[in-house]
Structure formats: structure tokens, C-alpha cells
Amino acid sequence: MNREEALKKSQEGLKQLAEDLKNGRSDTLVQYLTMLSKFHRYSFGNCIMIAMQKPEASLVAGFGHWKKMGRFVKKGEKGIAILAPLIGKRSVENHKGESEEAKCVYGFRVVYVFDVSQTEGKELPDFGSFSGDPGSKLADLEELVRSKGIELAYEAIPGGALGISQGGKVTVLPGLEGAEKFGVLVHELAHELLHRGDRRKETTKTIRETEAEAVAYVVSRAVGLNCSTKSSDYIQLWSGDAEVLMQSLELVRDVSSNIISELEQMSSKQMQHVA
Length: 275
Fold this sequence. Notes:
three-stranded antiparallel β-sheet
């Protein structure tokens, strides 16, 4: 597969996604968001490509990376094509008016990754998972919210909402079960990170709510929670506008990835402290 074919495959996936949403079907988006929860460091376009080529993929890496982990790609296995950026340098003018070199993306090339099911060798460590109970991840998430200078309160909310974002303060209804509390808190944190600047004026309430719910879905799935929540019914918008959809989903990917990465770092520090 060459670069043009790879781009075409990604565009086809996005076009189908936009068409499904336009027709009131959100299953395709939920599938891609599930893929994003597994591969949050990849762009949404690459998640689409992985899902189209190997929808059952659970953990992917390049040939060399698997080798470093003591695993080897089985003979005859077909790689999963994704797009990797080509990084170069160019001269730019800094704030002092001086010329300096800066890294820039000047194109993309096709690279191949393989799912863990396509490899054999050394057993991978079991990082553990949750099923309906966020465990210590909930406390980590609460700490993460506060570390961003956002006040967190558990108080009654008028109007029946489970959570509310007020720009610098997040309120969650007390008494929610662990998994629901985790999802609501991620949803409101997403509002704080995505919808408290100029972009709030540029988006509809429906898009803002759906972006926040998409982030909640991705992060919850990433920590192993069951996500038979309102997400699958909630996510039906953009009116088939693929360009708006892609911009929105890249933002969902960025915010989700940052939250997941920060939670992983917090867990890692805790494990080192215990050790």
C-alpha cells in the first residue's frame, strides 16, 4: 500500500462514518472510539485505518519494537498500514527576530504495524484492567482535575444533571456509583479543556456535549470500564459534515490521549513509590 492508497482508505472510512451519523447510526463512531481507547497515541485517521484493516486489533507495534519486547512477527503475517509523519527542519524567525531551525512535518509515509495476535515470544506483562469499577483511577482522576487548577465539588445540582462544568469548577452529583462517577467527571473535565475558550462560541451545544461524551467514552474504555452508557445513543451529530467531524475527533483524540497519559504517569509513580 502506498501513501495515496493509505490516504484514500482513511478518507473512505471517514466518509462512511459521516454518512452513518447523517443517517442516525452511531455504531461506526463507537467502533472507532473504542479503537482510539486502545491506541490513544495514534491519530484518529490512523485509528480508522487500523479498524478497517484489523477491527479485532488490541495492541499494535512495529516489527522492530516487538523485537525489543522479545516477541517476533509470525511468518506470513500481513502488516497493518498506517501513516507516519516525515519530520524535517526549516528556518523560522523567533520572537527576537532571529533565524533559527525548527522541526516541521513536510509529508507522510506508509509504515506497517502488527497486532499482538500476529506475534509470538515472550509473555507481555499484565497491566491489569477494571470491569465496572475504576478502583484507584477515580482518585487519580480527581487529583488530575485539581492539578489543573479546577475546583472539584460533590454537591446537589438543580435540574437533574449528573455533572456541570462552570469554567474553573466542576460539580458532580454525590452518590453516583464508581464507574458512572468516573465517566461524569471525565465528561466535565473535557468541557473544561475543550469548551472554555473562544471555541465555545464556534460550536453548538450538541457538538460540545457529544465531544465531551466521546472523551468520556475513550478514557473510560482505556482504563477498562464497561461503557454501555449513553455514549452510543448520544453520538449522532455533525450532520454528515466530514470536515467538521474530523476536526472535532482530532480534538477528542488529543484531550483523551492527554488524560489517559497523565493517569498512566500517576499510576506509574504510585507503583514506584510502593516498590
